[in-house]
């Protein structure tokens, strides 16, 4: 007998399980169909495991600087046990995975482990949307839902012509399980993932080279952010080659590692490293879903949806998260899940624009942003004013010994509206939440500046930079 439910969700990542819980809380029956493990890329191959590695690297780097804090390490010897680093990462992932499984049971959400394929009108349903599920144990099921939510996520985009083997040449998926730390590495791509891996591996002592096609790191973020992180990474010995094109045909793997050819500013460089990490963006998982049996359309590897309601070409089929493109972040998928569920339940909806979803980089120092960059605000025709204050003016930053970075605000000089906030510095990924709240409440900079911030804290950076717009900063 087919499984009849109110909502079937294809994909059990952050978007999928958030949608499932919200629907179940509203009294709807829900099935999640997940081909791998509940938690998706974020839990198993992205957000959580990578941040665990970054934390281990940060601790190692901090211990290496202990003498500056008056702490002496006996004989001055510290080392990294890579197996323990991986075990800690896996333990964290396993704990969260078990927590998700318990959450599904708590809300009586059925999880089917298998591959889902949407079928057209049939004996099961007069309209498309029934789902044939090939279970992991070889059996099959048919799910007949009233509504479908596609939340299949994404995977690392690969460059044609490279001989990926998961070790010598790998994406971030495989690199998370490398059995050893590379002595040297070429990172192809200077976006968020590339910068995080460069920071982490350089802290562990790896010789790192970043190769980026744009003229700077983090080309989609504010120019000042990319420049500040480039300065910090170069200070730690990371080599950064911008305006560069990797010649995939010239990449070779030998017993000594990877040899690559890069063209930059008319010059051909021959580079060598033990391994290569390719981080050039992500593409949606939209293949083999049976979309051709429906009026759901895709373009360039992403499902097309109504930007407000997140409905596809079939009003009862929604799509959320990485598989629709846009800003590919776990918390964006969670927000979209809430929007989709609210819409199909007939509730009032309000989808936040991609630019107003916080964007975080968990490097050392951290970076975070929300809203318009200075350049984009100008391009949109806003009459802007900006303020920028260095973290080094903060007493807490000096106490922590983490003085790199700045806080920058972009505002509309005519209306006074807050357009964008850009942070580089210790705990920037936590501090950006205040800017996110300010955007939600439509607060103007002086209101944030008038808010009392405790002293000494890093949060004072937000207060001071907002006051600086009107020349009122206490420390600027």
Number of strands: 23
Q: Which word captures the global form?
A: globular
- Corresponding CATH architecture of the largest domain: 3-Layer(bba) Sandwich
Structural class determined from secondary elements: alpha/beta
Written description of the protein model:
This protein is 30% helix and 27% strand. The strands form 6 sheets. It has a 5-stranded mixed β-barrel with strand order 1-2-3-4-5. Strands 7-14-8-9-10 form a 5-stranded parallel beta sheet. A 5-stranded antiparallel beta sheet has the order 19-20-23-22-21, with helices on both faces. The chain folds into 3 domains: 3-46 and 87-155 and 283-354, FAD/NAD(P)-binding domain (3-Layer(bba) Sandwich), CATH 3.50.50; 158-280, FAD/NAD(P)-binding domain, CATH 3.50.50; 365-468, FAD/NAD-linked reductase, C-terminal dimerisation domain (Enolase-like, domain 1). It is of the alpha/beta class and 476 residues long. The chain contains 13 helices and 23 strands.
List the helices and strands and how they pair.
Elements: E1 3-10, H1 14-25, E2 30-34, H2 40-45, H3 47-64, H4 82-106, E3 110-119, E4 130-135, E5 140-150, E6 154-156, E7 169-170, H5 172-175, E8 184-188, H6 192-203, E9 207-211, H7 223-235, E10 239-241, E11 244-254, E12 257-264, E13 267-273, E14 275-278, E15 282-284, E16 298-299, E17 302-303, E18 317-319, H8 330-344, E19 359-361, E20 367-371, H9 374-379, E21 384-390, H10 395-400, E22 406-412, E23 418-424, H11 428-440, H12 445-450, H13 460-468
Using brief descriptors, characterize the structure shown.
476 residues, alpha/beta, FAD/NAD(P)-binding domain, Enolase-like, domain 1, 3 domains, five-stranded parallel β-sheet, 23 strands, 30% helix
């Amino acid at each position: 007998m087919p499984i009849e439910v109110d909502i079937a969700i294809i994909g059990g990542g952050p978007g999928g399980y958030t949608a499932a819980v919200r629907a179940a809380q509203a009294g709807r029956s829900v099935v999640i169909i997940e081909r791998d493990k509940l938690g998706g890329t974020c839990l198993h191959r992205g957000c959580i495991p990578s941040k665990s590695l970054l934390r281990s690297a940060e601790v190692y780097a901090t211990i290496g600087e202990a003498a500056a804090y008056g702490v002496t390490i006996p004989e001055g010897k510290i080392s990294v046990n890579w197996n323990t680093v991986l075990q800690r990462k896996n333990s964290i992932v396993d704990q969260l995975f078990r927590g998700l499984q318990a959450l599904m049971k708590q809300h009586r959400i059925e999880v089917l482990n298998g591959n889902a394929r949407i079928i057209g009108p049939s004996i099961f349903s007069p309209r498309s949307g029934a789902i044939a599920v090939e279970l992991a144990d070889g059996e099959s099921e048919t799910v007949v839902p009233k509504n479908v939510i596609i939340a299949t996520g994404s995977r690392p985009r690969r460059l044609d012509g490279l001989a990926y083997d998961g070790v010598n040449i790998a994406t971030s998926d495989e690199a998370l399980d490398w059995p050893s730390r590379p002595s040297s590495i070429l990172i192809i791509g200077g976006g968020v993932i590339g910068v995080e891996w460069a920071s982490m591996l350089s802290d562990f002592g790896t010789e790192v080279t970043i190769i980026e096609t744009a003229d700077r790191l983090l080309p989609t973020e504010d120019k000042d952010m990319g420049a500040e992180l480039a300065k910090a990474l170069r200070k730690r010995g990371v080599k950064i080659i911008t305006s560069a094109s990797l010649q995939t045909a010239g990449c070779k793997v030998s017993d000594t590692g990877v040899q690559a050819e890069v063209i930059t500013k008319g010059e051909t460089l021959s580079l060598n490293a033990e391994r290569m990490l390719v981080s050039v963006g992500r593409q949606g998982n939209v293949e083999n879903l049976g979309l051709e049996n429906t009026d759901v359309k895709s373009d360039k590897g992403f499902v097309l949806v109504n930007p407000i309601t997140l409905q596809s070409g079939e009003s009862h089929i929604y799509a959320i998260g990485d598989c629709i493109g846009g800003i590919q972040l776990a918390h964006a998928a969670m927000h979209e899940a809430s929007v989709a569920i609210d819409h199909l339940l007939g509730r009032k909806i309000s989808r936040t624009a991609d630019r107003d979803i916080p964007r975080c980089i968990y490097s050392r120092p951290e970076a975070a942003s929300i809203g318009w960059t200075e350049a984009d605000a100008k391009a949109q025709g806003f009459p802007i004013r900006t303020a920028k204050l260095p973290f080094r003016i903060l007493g807490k930053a000096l106490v922590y010994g983490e003085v790199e970075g700045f806080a920058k605000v972009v505002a509309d000089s005519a209306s006074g509206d807050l357009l964008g906030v850009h942070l580089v510095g210790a705990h920037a990924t936590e501090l950006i939440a205040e800017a996110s709240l300010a955007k939600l409440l439509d607060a103007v900079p002086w209101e944030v500046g008038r808010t009392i911030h405790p002293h000494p804290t890093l949060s004072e950076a937000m207060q001071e930079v907002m006051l600086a717009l009107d020349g009122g900063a206490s420390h600027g």
